[in-house]
Amino acid sequence: MVFRNVFILSGLVLSLTLILASYAWSGVNWAWLITGPLLLLGIYDLIQNKHTLLKIYPVVGHFRYLFESVRRELQQYFVESDIDGAPISREFRSLAYQRAKKDDDTRAFGTIFDVYRNGYEWVNHSMAPKGCIPANLRIRFGGPDCTRPYEASPLNISAMSYGALSRNAVMALNRGAKFGNFAHNTGEGGISEWHLKYEGDLIWQIGTGYFGCRTPEGKFDSALFAEQAARDVIKMIEIKLSQGAKPGHGGLLPAAKLTEEIARIRMVPMGEDVLSPPRHSAFSSPVELLQFVAELRKLSGGKPVGFKLCPGNRKEFLGVCKAMLETGLLPDFITVDGGEGGTGAAPVELTNSVGMPLRDGLHFVNNALRGIGVRDKIRIIASGKSFSAFHMLRMMALGADTVNSARGMMLALGCIQSRSCNTDKCPTGITTQNPARYKQLDVTDKGVRVANFHHSSIEALAELLSILGKERLEDLEPADIQRRVSQNSVLNYAELYPCIDEGCLLHTDCAPDAWASDWRQATTDRWR
Q1: What tens digit of pLDDT does each residue of 25-40 get?
Q2: What contacts 210, CB < 8 A, 6 or more positions away?
Q3: Domain at 500, CATH number
Q4: Which partner from 2, 392, 457, 478 sits 20 to 30 angstroms from 158, CA to CA?
Q5: How many domains does the chain have?
Q6: Among candidates 197, 112, 122, which has minimal Cα distance to 162?
């Protein structure tokens, strides 16, 4: 990188100049005593592997850590913000960093939250805590038509493509997944050699561009899919319908981040933005979606297959539910993404104002599956802004079986949320294809940090369950989560997000009033 070379050269020239000048002018002896240590510090920054930011920005990068330490001290003064506001988010970001580094994540002086402010959430502990064992929290994926089920961790890496992420970031995530025995979602950008190097469990995501299994015209290629899906490291297949940050838009990889290798993997031309179509060409109705699920399950040799979406039009998802009843075909899982989810590039209107927020979408999908009597046959994965075990617990109380995290895993890699993902100028080497930047990200160290974050989060989740007097995730109930809705009023999630009766949608005249109209209008042979 030019900056690093200029720093080294200018440091050497300046130090030599000042040392020579000190012999002629005794008044400048102090100068080289200052620049000398700074030069040594810069050299140390360049050869250490713990902090990518310092390798890319020697010496000056230390200011970032100075400001971070001051911010942590001042954190307690920002409790007047909303419970989901920026100061609280910073607290959880700090937690992710600390758990990744195995630093002390305890706090002195109690909560930073204003517990009487609207939106504050908590769980009520039991007077008889139980011993929940983290190893017992794994969840089996695979419905009645699946011959190769997968035992998944409660927390896994959410979809992030190679291209959006650098090769070193992909390798570090997969190395962490292998080390910690959890799954790594490839994102829709296809499977690269960097996904395969450490043999961590993969969830292969198939998007509308069919990258890695497409014809030259961009259509789905079943032979290429079967060849890739046969890999033992691929444990599940996920069909991406939409994602929370840009539902209905399709994926976007800016041309600035497109390398010849990525173009080869995705089977696209160089020099252009890689735009995934907004919808799939392999199917055009709820029934055809389920037939595609069944086809991929067969082509993959019986591995779990599901789909991911950010819920939008209720009638369309209910059409999928009707198609399940009509055909008898079921996905093995459904991943629910929230409208608050993150992305490397998307129009502002989509990131801010399109798609159901995660809790609303999760509640809706869980209830819809309950309503048609298949909830026990289909797993639900929740994806969207999960930093802590309490975030996971909250989603699981609303119906999620497992949780995917992208932001938390990126923070474990060292992401500082500079919001330069789409510019190819990521200062930490995570979301750039510039080798001068991504090569500074140490795969071994960051892989350990990803595994540390996962391990600490699962330990904390088991501890929360124990405190609640529960031994299994299946024992969680919506009533376990409390939320202050006004100064003098508290409601639990069972009251805020009521469940409909099991099987109540099987007979139209039994559908709850809030569901009846959408259920009647839902169709199986078309989306709208």
Answers
A1: 555 555 555 666 667 7
A2: 218, 219, 220, 221, 282
A3: 3.20.20.70
A4: 478
A5: 2
A6: 197
